[in-house]
């Protein structure tokens, strides 16, 4: 009895999807929206820490920085100025499995932004820039070591995925980055930034034919090399680990449990389940832990990776409450697996997620991420309406079906705690 | 010679502006956009720390929290659940002169969101909730005391605006909040949350006539009281103050200088000037301080208040570099006043700001802020196109005219530094 069903809002009116693969192997996709007031452009490179050899740990992220340092015809200042002249909103990020470069501008600057980003994909990697930037990366690594809230998740993943490349650190270590040479980076770039391993995505107001012609000319010299990814089998093992850390003043709890891959259609139901369990502001864990004053914050979400997925829960608490928080967390997870979810919980989570999808469709920049990542993982495009319909169709039974395998009972609990609390 | 002039992009196509004042004094305004996929609703209350008596310092911000704690017919949980059921993205904030409550939802939930926010404007202010929330606020005050980066700006304002209510702290102090009674808060609410002192703004997909009828019914019991604001004259005095602070590990420099009020048309040129001086990523201060490695970050902006404006510059630096940073900062400000700005700098800043305006027009939620705040300050509405045209028309002479009064030479420099650096 929920009166708030999603209307079939005409979310994709006038929007047209285009895709092609160039002779050099580069995939180009676009969601053309003539009513948009801007255009977003992004290169999605299917490479990240999971694709690194042990001796090159951290190279994906370091290389991401180097792409802003210069090309054969531009230095770092010229790249910075060119973004600035267009008034571009731009950035880049590196994860375990993707490196993404993106920007948004007024439609009239679209071709210039495309030219700049394309030029950056073939960086000069000058030795002097490499040496300077290495210091910046080493400082970043040192800085994060002071942030247990960040490291807790990284170290929990490393233990959960032990022996699997999805446990690799994005930042790398002071040792691995310190020892890295320019030649190793150039070799990694040559292997991983093959046009066949990249998707160029665009969203918003643009001329598809003109864009395609421009990309053909700009990337004409690019040569494809084969750039695979290893999909080692992964078998999660339940367990726990408690680590005292001098820089921790709070206790950080990370619970990881098997979920569903980016290619698995059950990922929609998994997002709803994670929302019911631990969405910030209102969820089972919110009421059990935040509202009761046991923790400052808690949240659960579902993380879809290439071939593997996981549920994760993060809680930060006063060390004095640590054991009580773990107890409540275990009780809630057990109750969830035993009793399943209720219809009104599913409806509420579906509304929340569907609204989020609409908000994420309001600007070309936010559409770009959906578009590019969905394509990298599944090789296909999903309209906003299709996504909304998939959530709309979910039932309580779909969500409860995920619980039959008792995923949370197979979870791994990682605790990063102040040394004092370890006595 | 800049080829990147703004096209007359049809930014406001299909958008219609509506406004009315109800008999109880409440102003209702809307930017109706039938093509939008969501609707944003906000109450803009023209009250903040500058409107507080000394003994009620912090009440505006504390009251903002209390509006989420309950109305005569809803408790805190019910308010939270109701936002959640709609999948609303909502929040609130308090500044020196405004308290704003806002949310965005799918169009079909618009009336429900409007009902909820309107109900919240008449809070129950239950004693038990008041006592509990007071502890939360006191913890927040203690928390901010650990964040010199935040306090530096607050304390710099207090000194710059000494004797003027714009120097009042939004958070208040542990003493003032600790001593505050429920009755004082109820009195403040009765004085300041008069419908005549509030603007209800909406943006996105909505039915204006139906909205208006709903608001009339919901706010029928509201009675206007006169709620003025004192506009004491303000005469900035140049000077500086250096304060050692045990919790500072870096040196924080805040430079404040006279600017232009929210009602002054020269504010557009002032934004361009601030961008040229200190926009993050690319500006005179960026190249002089960040690129040279002297500071971690620096930025300048122009802050428009009701009747008074100011330029502010914020830099964070290693204590060892403090004197050198101050020297470079003074040199750059002096050079700016002596030589003025260059045409290409003005063009670049205009492009950047114009692009920002377009991005801010892409979602109903971001339009809402522009719409509501512009109306609170000037009593009128400005379309995106009008704003873009005003920037487009700016010349080098307009920007240089602001420098004739040598505003930065009348600036006040506040330094918050580690105690060790004070020897």
TrEMBL record, chains A, B:
GO terms for biological process: proteolysis. Keywords: Hydrolase, Protease. Belongs to the peptidase M16 family. This is Putative zinc protease. Residues 28-173 form the Peptidase M16 N-terminal domain. It comes from Calidithermus roseus. PANTHER family: METALLOPROTEASE, MITOCHONDRIAL-PROCESSING PEPTIDASE SUBUNIT ALPHA. Residues 180-352 form the Peptidase M16 C-terminal domain. Transmembrane segments: none annotated. GO terms for molecular function: metal ion binding; metalloendopeptidase activity.
């Amino acid at each position: 009895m929920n009166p708030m069903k999603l209307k079939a809002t005409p979310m994709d009116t006038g929007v047209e999807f285009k895709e092609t693969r160039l002779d050099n192997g580069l995939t180009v996709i676009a969601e053309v929206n003539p009513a948009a007031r801007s255009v977003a452009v992004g290169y999605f490179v299917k490479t990240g820490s999971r694709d690194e050899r042990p001796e090159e740990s951290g190279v994906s992220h370091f290389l991401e920085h180097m792409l802003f340092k210069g090309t054969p015809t531009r230095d770092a200042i010229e790249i910075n100025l060119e973004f600035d002249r267009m008034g571009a909103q731009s950035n880049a990020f590196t994860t375990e499995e993707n490196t993404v470069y993106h920007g948004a501008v007024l439609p009239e600057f679209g071709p210039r932004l495309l030219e700049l980003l394309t030029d950056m994909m073939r960086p000069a990697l000058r030795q002097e820039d490499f040496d300077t930037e290495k210091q910046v990366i080493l400082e970043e690594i040192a800085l994060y070591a002071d942030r247990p809230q960040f490291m807790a998740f990284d170290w929990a993943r490393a233990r959960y995925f032990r022996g699997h490349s999805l446990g690799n650190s994005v930042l790398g270590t002071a040792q691995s980055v310190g020892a890295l040479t320019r030649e190793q980076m150039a070799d990694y770039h040559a292997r991983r930034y093959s046009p066949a391993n990249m998707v160029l995505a665009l969203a918003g107001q643009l001329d598809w034919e003109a864009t395609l012609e421009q990309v053909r000319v700009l990337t004409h010299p690019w040569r494809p090399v084969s750039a695979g990814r290893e999909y080692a089998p992964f078998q999660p093992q339940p367990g726990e680990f408690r680590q005292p850390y001098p820089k921790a003043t709070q206790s950080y709890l990370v619970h990881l449990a098997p979920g569903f891959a980016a290619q698995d259609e059950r990922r929609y139901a998994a997002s709803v389940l994670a929302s019911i369990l631990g969405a910030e502001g209102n969820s089972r864990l919110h009421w059990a832990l935040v509202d009761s004053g046991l923790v400052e914050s808690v949240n659960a979400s579902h993380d879809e990776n290439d071939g593997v997925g996981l549920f994760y829960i993060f809680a930060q608490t006063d060390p004095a409450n640590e054991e009580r928080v773990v107890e409540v967390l275990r009780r809630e997870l057990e109750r969830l697996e035993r009793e399943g979810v209720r219809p009104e919980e599913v409806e509420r989570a579906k509304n929340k997620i569907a609204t989020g999808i609409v908000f994420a469709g309001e600007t070309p920049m936010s559409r770009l991420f959906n578009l590019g990542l969905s394509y990298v993982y599944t090789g296909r495009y999903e309209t906003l309406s299709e996504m909304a319909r998939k959530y709309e169709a979910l039932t309580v039974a779909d969500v409860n079906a995920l619980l039959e395998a008792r995923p949370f009972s197979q979870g791994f609990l990682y605790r990063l705690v102040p040394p004092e609390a370890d006595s």
